[in-house]
Design goal:
The chain has 15 helices and ten strands. The chain has an eight-stranded parallel barrel, surrounded by eight helices. Helix 3 links the parallel strand 2 and strand 3. The two termini are about 35 Å apart.
């Protein structure tokens, strides 16, 4: 990693935001909409985020979910790179056990060549799907083995990214291209720079590993809120300075939806919660409309799930969302807040980021 690696990781807060703000995109597809619609919304949000001073734009990896069109983060990031100029782009994350480390090194080396100096590689060890789909992805039913091997897979990936397998290693003569090997080839002028690696997690495993390795850490507060503070504490306690960072740097993913009207925010998050109810009960589908959610007959168990789920979704008017984000920052001490807006319509998601940017007085495009 270059000497300025920490500068690529540590963000800059703008306006009245207490820390840098970023975007996590699941490329959600609503009922009556297409994946093409969802991807167009992603471009619109990425452009808005870039113009308003958001730090980075990450895309999650999910599979076999009709309402989530982010099965191929690297492909989507290449598309976003073609429509933006400055904002950092990355995976939030690539689920490493689903892929050969060499393939990830090649994909993100290619992205780095497309958008030099603004690509992040966020890595997780969960499958991002159900067990059967994970088995199809990995061509094996030994799924626990993939998660248990995560540290070794990570080490192998970093070796490919840095092109520094030791002499005698079986992979010493294998190179991820584009990558550093091109700089050492005759006449080579390829940059040796490579994307910074982040570890993602929703429990203590990746928190401890990120701290031990001195890597930046991203925690999934948006679906594991009860573990947020313990995981961040563990990360900070475990942290050892590295060539990448001399001090911990942790961001948290946050579900946040701002609307012009508080009642509309409640309608939108109810629809997103119904989508989660269906997903958790083995009935994944497109994100329902607010009208469908209002007409749905929730069982007592489903109602309790919705109450619990929405308790961790910061929603309401722009001022209410700003207050909720400020409070969350004070409680967690997170170094960066990465916002994900889950709603049926792309226009609602786009408007949410615009309202939040306005609430914090983020820069407006020239």
């Amino acid at each position: 990693m270059p000497a300025d690696a920490a500068e690529e990781i540590r963000g800059t807060a703008h306006g009245a935001a207490p820390v840098p703000l970023s975007v996590l995109d699941l490329v959600t597809v609503g009922a009556g909409r297409t994946a093409t619609d969802a991807l167009r919304t992603s471009v619109d949000i990425a452009r808005l985020a870039e113009g308003r001073g958001f730090q980075r734009y990450w895309v999650a990896e999910h599979h076999s979910m009709p309402g989530v069109a982010s099965s191929s983060p690297a492909v989507i990031l290449a598309h976003l790179a073609a429509h933006t100029d400055r904002i950092r782009l990355g995976s939030g994350g690539v689920m490493l056990p689903n892929h050969a480390p060499l393939v990830i090194a090649e994909q993100f080396g290619t992205l780095e060549a497309m958008a030099p100096g603004r690509v992040d590689l966020g890595l997780g060890r969960a499958p991002g799907t159900d067990g059967a789909t994970a088995a199809a992805l990995r061509r094996t039913d030994r799924l626990n083995e993939g998660a248990d091997d995560f540290p070794q897979q990570l080490a192998e990936l970093v070796r490919f990214l840095d092109d520094d397998f030791p002499d005698g290693h079986p992979y010493a003569r294998i190179h991820a291209v584009p990558g550093p090997v091109q700089a050492t080839s005759p006449g080579g002028v390829q940059s040796a720079h490579r994307p910074p690696v982040w570890l993602l997690g929703s429990s203590g495993f990746s928190a401890r590993l990120a701290g031990t390795l001195g890597l930046p850490f991203a925690f999934a507060h948006h679906f594991s809120a009860q573990n947020t503070i313990p995981a961040l504490d563990l990360y900070r306690e475990s942290f050892r300075p590295s060539a990448v960072l001399d001090a911990p740097y942790a961001l948290i993913g946050v579900s946040a939806l701002a609307t012009d009207d508080e009642k509309e925010a409640r309608r939108q998050v109810l629809a997103a919660a119904l989508n989660m109810v269906r997903l958790r009960t083995g009935r994944p589908g497109l994100v329902p409309t607010p009208e469908e959610a209002e007409a749905y007959d929730f069982s007592p168990m489903e109602e309790e799930f919705v109450r619990s789920w929405n308790a961790n979704v910061i929603h309401g008017t722009a001022d209410e969302v700003r207050s909720g984000l400020d409070d969350l920052h004070k409680r967690t001490g997170a170094d960066e807040l990465m916002l994900t807006a889950n709603a049926h319509g792309g226009d609602v998601r786009l408007r949410s980021y615009e309202l939040i940017a306005d609430a914090y007085g983020l820069p407006t495009p020239a």
